[in-house]
From TrEMBL:
This is Peptide chain release factor 2. Pfam families: PCRF. InterPro entries: PCRF, Pep_chain_release_fac_I_sf. It comes from Lentilactobacillus parakefiri. One of its GO terms (biological process) is translational termination. It comes from the Bacteria. SUPFAM superfamilies: Release factor. Residues 1-94 form the Peptide chain release factor domain.
Length: 94
């Protein structure tokens, strides 16, 4: 019985995910842009942390993550970055 409950929960989780990813654009690739706001070096450093987070998340999900544009910060971090994230449901997961 316990095994059946586990299997049922897994099926329900899959079904819930399918319901969440049923939008018209969810199955597409995604373009992600990061632009730090006011705050100088600290905001640029935070943007670089977000960049690493999105890159690792995409790789963990099995997506191909390409850097389309990258403008480094003056002292640290990034001023601007654009990523192309390719894979089934990349847009939906982001």
């Amino acid at each position: 019985l316990e095994e059946e409950v586990i299997q049922f929960k897994e099926k329900m989780d899959q079904y819930e995910l399918q319901l969440l990813l049923d939008g018209p654009h969810d199955a597409n690739n995604a373009i992600l842009e990061l632009h730090p706001g006011a705050g100088g070096t600290e905001s640029q450093d935070w943007a670089s942390m977000l960049l690493r987070m999105y890159q690792r998340y995409g790789e963990q999900k099995g997506f191909k993550v390409e850097t389309v544009d990258y403008l480094p910060g003056d002292e640290a971090g990034v001023k601007s970055v654009t990523l192309l994230i390719k894979g089934h449901n990349a847009y939906g997961y982001l």
